[in-house]
């Protein structure tokens, strides 16, 4: 069972359209370097970093650093647990 605090954190994280778009891209690629995010065309690197931090703190993505590069991967079990709880409302 997903804790209430994480359930609310995920809801807040997904409420932002840019974070939702980032999550969609990461999910579709089954892991990707941050540099490939389409949001780089419209958002500053600092803003993208903030969005990645929010998604990571909510438990939705894992950020692995290799040198200066960041690689993003979806934590599918967390997303599945969130969707299951959301469907039970």
What does this structure look like?
The relative contact order is 0.20. By secondary structure, the protein is of the alpha+beta class. The protein is built from 4 helices and 3 strands, in the order ααβαββα. It has helices spanning 4-15, 17-29, 45-57, 76-87; strands at 32-33, 61-66, 69-74. The protein has a single domain, classed as Winged helix-like DNA-binding domain superfamily/Winged helix DNA-binding domain (Arc Repressor Mutant, subunit A, Orthogonal Bundle), CATH 1.10.10.10. Helices cover 56% and strands 16% of the residues.
Query: What string gives the helices and strands in order?
Result: HHEHEEH
**Structural class computed from helices and strand pairing:** alpha+beta
Shape: globular
What level of helicity do the residues show? 55-70%
Distance between the termini: 14 Å
Main β-sheet, spatial strand arrangement: 1-3-2
Return the domain count: 1
Number of discrete helical segments = 4
The CATH architecture term is: Orthogonal Bundle
What is the averaged pLDDT score? 94
Strand content: 15-25%
What summary fits the major beta sheet?
A: 3 strands, antiparallel
CATH class category name: Mainly Alpha
């Amino acid at each position: 069972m997903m804790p209430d605090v994480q359930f609310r954190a995920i809801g807040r994280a997904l409420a932002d359209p840019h974070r939702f778009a980032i999550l969609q891209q990461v999910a579709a690629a089954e892991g990707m370097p941050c540099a490939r995010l389409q949001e780089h065309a419209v958002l500053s690197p600092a803003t993208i970093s903030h969005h990645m931090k929010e998604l990571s703190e909510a438990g939705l993505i894992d950020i692995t650093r290799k040198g200066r590069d960041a690689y993003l991967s979806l934590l599918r079990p967390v997303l599945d647990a969130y969707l299951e709880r959301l469907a039970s409302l």
